[in-house]
Amino acid sequence: MLLKDQIKNEVKEAMKAKDTVRRDALRLLTSAFKQVEVDERIELDDAATLKIIQKQVKQRLDSLAQFKEAGRDDLAEKEQSEITIFEAYLPKQLSDDELSVRIKEVIAKVGAESMKDIGKVMGMASKELNGLADGKRINVCAKALLS
Fold it and tell me: What is the pTM (predicted TM-score) of this model?
């Protein structure tokens, strides 16, 4: 079963359980899936579905920071609950130590020696660690290891 179909089924389960927070969050996801499918005239596979979920999490994290800064705890709490629901569908994120080890391997593969080679490292690391770590975390770790 495709991930997007699983999420559609879980919307129905949330409706039966009268879990409005989960239902609404999952409806937002299915809406985002449908939008991409209509705009790009494609059928989503699991990889594309994961990218959409990651994008939605990133948007919620940005909103969360802004709501906290503005003192809107009610909206920040809503965003946090959506992030928690969405992250359940993403692969487990690497810890900082695991990320560091994986980036060291990438640096060795591409033969990077200085900050001049950050582009090569980021290119390969982004492909290999797709879904396992955020691009910003990969970049920060790679820069730390190359400097």
Answer: 0.81
